[in-house]
Amino acid sequence: MNFNPVSIRGFFVFFIMKDSLLFVFKILIFVPLISALIFFTFPFGYAQDYSFSPKGDSAVHNRWVDSVFKTMTEDEKIGQLFMVELSSKWTIDDNRFQAIESYINNYHIGGVIFFYGGPVRQAGLTNYLQKKSKIPLMIAQDGEWGLAMRLDSTVSFPRNLCLGAVKNNEIIYETGLEIGKICNRMGVNIDFMPCVDIYDNPLNTVIANRSFGSNIHDVAQKAYAIVLGMEENRILCTAKHFPGHGNTNVDSHEALPVISDSKEKIDSAALYPFKYLIENKIGGVMIGHLFVPAFDEGLEKTPSSISKNIINDLLINTLKFNGLVFTDALQMKGVSANYPSGELEVRAFEAGVDVFLMPSDCKKSFFAVKEAVKSGRISQSEIDKRCKKILLAKKRMGLDKFSPIKTQNLYQDLNRLETRLLVKKIYENAITLVKNDLSILPIRDFSDKKIAALSISKDGTTTEFEKHFLHYSNSVKLFSISKTASQKEFDTLYNKLESFDYVIIGLHDVNSYPKNFGLTDITVNFVDKICKRQKIVVDFFNSPLAINKFQNYKQFSSIVISYEDTPLAREISSDMIFGSLNFKGKLPLNVNNDFKEGQSITTENLKL
After folding, report:
1. Which of 155, 160, 109, 115 is nearest to 134 (CA)?
2. Are 245 and 197 in contact (CB under 8 A)?
3. Each residue of 64-104: pLDDT tens digit?
4. Angstrom distance (rounded) from CA 389 to CA 65
5. Which of 80, 183, 324, 403 could, after both became Cys, cross-link 110 (CB 3.0–4.6 A)?
6. pLDDT of residue 301
């Protein structure tokens, strides 16, 4: 076969031209296609859905918000401002529940907050109410230590003061993540937490173990860690109680507390965690019922929850907060004692509030706001702004795509092994050794030492704390006494314990309230007396501030703070005393001159 060189050259020219044309064709087709894909999948929607614009005016046009808003009547816009309470203990036939239905049908409320009840019942009522409501409802719960604060059959997480003792904030983030998963499973969109009040007044009766502690930086960082975990599950959190409920000994549930600190002190201390969270874009802030003369000088005991100076000027304009502003419960006497329903809500709105939480009379308050709009006291444009702000938050929570809560496997999902292991991990990192003379802990040698374990409790029985000691040595002798026992019974016990080298005392069934922390005078005197005679280890299953009840605490050989009196905390504390776990926690607050915030004694595990 003969080959013509010209023909061969022409063939290659054609082949190259063919490939070039194909290449150009591919560019013409695929470049626009790829550009379109990039354009339409770029997360503009994310930026729209997850950003609050200044002063709550939705400058960013969210399609869902706009589409819903266009269908709303003026009454429906006003109704979005209201959040009322209910309990899953109520049935559909209950008059109180039927009142909730009427609030949805007639006053178009924006949300509900569930109080005590059970998971399956709450899920059922949530599904029922969401189906009834034209606009998806915000479902809230006050779950500062998880939904177990209000809901049975769920895992209880440690209180904030215990979390404040944890050095590793990654664990706090894991806690927020887990609580967020549980809220999500229950159809809860808002958790009224974290409490970021600074524990700087040891006489505080309402904050106490709800605070992370007295270090403003640690409080802020722990609050942010837990919020970060919650928000990954699209749960809206609210920093509370603005502008800070820590430095008072009055309970706002009962009366109006006065915060007498200077503006400078409030700005540098109480406001610090709020500023930190606002800078990190927290979605909600709850206003406390407090009178703060530094910001409301000349105004006769104006509660901060209706104060323009505190909400509009300080929170919104100065601190640049543009998330949802909630009142604390409007039924609380700190605000309801002096302001009637209706007028109270109108004043709160004028001050800058977006959501009225638990009004005493929803119907009366609704019509009061409506009348204020009609008279011109409140502008319709401002109602529109707040309404859009709430709708945008609902979009952020995923309520634009609500699906009914599935009750199958609900209990199992709320009580996963992973959740319980996390609670165990928290206690293992929180329980704190604050005094350890002669390094007697962990107890190493049982051979020549007589050890007594004493439970002082409400019912006078031994707990998991004392019983767990028997895992380490059968020679440990267990004793128990009721904290309400007579002086004669304590004297008899004192004599029985005389021959022991160590007495390990567990103080159980106590509380976080500073009046006496649940300790009786006879109990205190007994412990003060026995420490003069022999070596004692005292384990406080409550607030570390309870140390101050004892005159002779300096003579205690060791002091352990376990923070909470749960079966798991008891067992873990026992393991630490005998060395199978090491102490890691730190004091989250100042106790006295001997025990300062941040103080920590760590130990090494013993090889068993």
Report:
1. 109
2. yes
3. 999 999 999 999 999 999 999 999 999 999 999 999 999 99
4. 9
5. 80
6. 86
pTM confidence score: 0.88
Angle between helix axes 95-107 and 362-375 (nearest 10 degrees) is 20
Structure tokens at 551: 């005159």
Paired sense of beta strands 432-436 and 451-457, if any: unpaired
Q: Is 326 helix (H, G, I), strand (E, B) or coil?
A: strand
| Structure-block tokens of residue 503 | 């007495």
Q: Which two tokens stand for residue 445?
A: 């040698």
Is 606 exposed, middle or buried (CB count within 10 Å of its CB: 0-12, 13-18, 19+)?
A: middle
Measure the CA–CA gap between 538 and 435, rounded to whole angstroms. Answer: 10
Nearest-angstrom CA–CA distance, 316 and 307:
12
* 185 closest CA partner among 241, 123, 134: 123
Tokens of 584: 């890691």
Residues 311-327: b if buried by 16+ CB within 10 A, e if exposed? bbebbbeebebbbbbbb
Q: How far apart are CA 42 and CA 525, in angstroms?
A: 69
Distance separating alpha carbons of residues 166 and 442, to the nearest angstrom: 20
Give residue 497's Cα distance to chain centre: 43
Q: What is the CB-side half-sphere exposure of residue 350 using CA atoms within 13 A?
A: 15
Q: Note the Cα 527 to chain centre separation in Å.
A: 35
> How far is CA 491 from each of CA 256, 485, 536, rounded to the nearest angstrom?
45, 10, 17
Looking at this protein, which amino acid is placed at residue 65?
Answer: V
What is the H or E stretch that residue 71 is in? none
Report the alpha-carbon angle 434-438-440, nearest 5. Answer: 75
DSSP state of 242: E
What percentage of the chain exceeds 90 in pLDDT? 80
* Rounded-to-integer distance, Cα 239 and Cα 219, Å: 11
Q: Residues 478-482: contacts with CB within 8 Å, 24+ apart?
A: 478/452, 478/453, 479/452, 479/453, 479/454, 479/455, 480/454, 480/455, 480/456, 481/454, 481/455, 481/456, 482/456, 482/457, 482/458
